[in-house]
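Incident log, support desk, overnight shift.

02:14 A customer reports that sequence design results differ from what the structure should imply. Their input is reproduced verbatim below. On-call engineer (initials T.W.) acknowledged and began investigating.
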């Protein structure tokens, strides 16, 4: 998000079979980090604004723990390259990670079947309005 407005969002089937939800989320974090860096450089070249750290938001606490923990465990050897990449960007100050509660996950509107009040809540947070609603 830039200035409170949604700039980029993506849903894609991963190329690799993940052994856990944390691994799947962590791989998604690595891809999102690449896109964050690209968007940050684009905004700097366009002289849009002085960008500081980009925020990488994730709803999986295990994936966030892997990103912040410098010790590799036996269970994370298969995602070692992604670990090094994300940690390098965090340590360099390029990005920082934060947790979002599942109830506040805006991407759910694009990936899940939601009902009335939940859809309205997310749409209001995103600033989306029904153009065909009676005035």
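02:41 Re-run completed on a clean worker. Output:
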């Amino acid at each position: 998000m830039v200035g409170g407005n949604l700039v980029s969002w993506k849903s894609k089937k991963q190329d690799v079979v993940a052994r856990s939800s944390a691994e799947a989320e962590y791989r998604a974090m690595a891809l999102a980090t690449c896109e964050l860096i690209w968007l940050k450089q684009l905004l700097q070249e366009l002289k849009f604004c002085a960008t500081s750290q980009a925020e990488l938001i994730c709803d999986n606490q295990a994936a966030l723990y892997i990103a912040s923990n410098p010790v590799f465990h036996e269970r994370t050897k298969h995602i070692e390259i992604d670990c090094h990449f994300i940690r390098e960007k965090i340590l360099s100050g390029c990005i920082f990670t934060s947790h979002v509660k599942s109830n506040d996950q805006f991407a759910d509107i694009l990936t899940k079947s939601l009902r009335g009040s939940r859809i309205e809540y997310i749409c209001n947070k995103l600033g989306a309005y029904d153009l065909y609603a009676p005035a």
